[in-house]
Amino acid sequence: VFQLYDTYGFPLDLTATVAKENNVIFDVEKVEALMNEQRIRSGAGFSWKHNDADGLNNLESLDGRSTFSGYESIEEPDVLITSCCEISGKSWITIDPCPFYPEGGGQISDTGTLTDVDTGEIFQVKQCTRLSGDRIALMLDHPVNVGKRVSACVNQEKRHGSSIHHTATHLLNAGLRKYVNGAIVQAGSLVTSDKLRFDFTHSKPLTHEMVSQIEGYINSLSIQQLPVYTTIMSLEQAKEANAMMLFGEKYENTVRVVGVGQRANPESLELCGGTHVSTLAPLFPFKIVSETSAASGTRRIEAVAGISALRWLEDKQRHLEKICTNLNVNPDEAVEMVLKMKTKLRQQEKELLVLKTTDVIGSGGNSVSIGNVCVHVIDPPENTTKKAFAKIIQSYANSKREGAPESWHFVKCGNLLACTVDPFNPDVKAGVVSAHAGKMLRALFEEIGGKGGGNDTFAQGILENANLNSNEIAHAAKEIIE
Known about the structure:
The protein has eleven helices and 19 strands. By secondary structure, it is α+β, with helices and mostly antiparallel strands. A hairpin with a 5-residue loop joins strand 3 (112-116) and strand 4.
């Protein structure tokens, strides 16, 4: 069951339905455990759970009331501090009512301020976390007493950004199912005030066309300013409405459903406790900035929307302007100019490689011959890339083989050792390794130390001891073929 989900993207809820229809029982808890392990390996399981190192499990000692009011308002003029405690030098409290959204559902927590209604003293709310019984704990920058009355104000810009990207996450999920694969399953998400990250089951990268279609879909809906609505209903009603829900999640009998578009035919309908915008207008523009692999069978999208997308686009525009300034071209000519420069650079690299190879071959190097074994020692070419260096060595070795095709040729350059032979020359004495450069080099490295390999004509590798001289290498090779 897990392999169907993880490797092939087959929806777990559909697997459960088919299994039930065929009287097949599978271990749901085991599947959930495997899913959690996969999320941890991929980084998709962005965990908001407390760990003992933080000492936050002691937050349950906060027993005061804390009713969340943040769906309706981000400000409360008069709230009561109902409990407090200090953990690891940090002050934690509960307030009632509480407009601050705690981290959960992939969405980061709100921040903001509390202001003493009597003295005007301001307390910074640094973090919010969810407690049992739907209570919320707030971490402050300094202590405050129980019973004090304060006004609460959520950071509006941060909340608005998180709401934009949470709604965008829902539409991204819908877009993926619409344009990529209807069987895609969400495998993790992270929603912040300036971006979103979404992991989903899929076995291969998205095409440029798919990415463009998804972006166009979300931007088109945003321009239409479709409404975003929430409905409280029973879990059974949500299932009947085909609302999206995460496999393995434990839901209450009464759930909150977030829809986008017309209620009769929504673009998206998901069970969600997060905050959202009331209309899609603030999502424009929407831009996917990366699509990568998160784990085997799992892809990861990072995207930005609204003001964050505009900032991202402005940053790219600045980079383009710098490129155009340095190339002395207009923006619409930049790509053509870069391609021309790339072609010219490749040609110059080829010409330079030919010159360096000619210099190395012309230098001759130092050679030692014992029977049909020839060891050539050359100096490393200066200012040469690793890839070009390997090509020069191979060209030099080929020139030696073509000059004396009946012999084994070894080329030593620093700690690199290459071997070449003509496997079809009947005059080559090969012994137990046959006329095969790769087999010879591996056998030689077993004697003198090193690691490498290759094909029947050419092989190369790295010596463990770069100070071995040509005589030592020649004698060791001679013993192998005799």
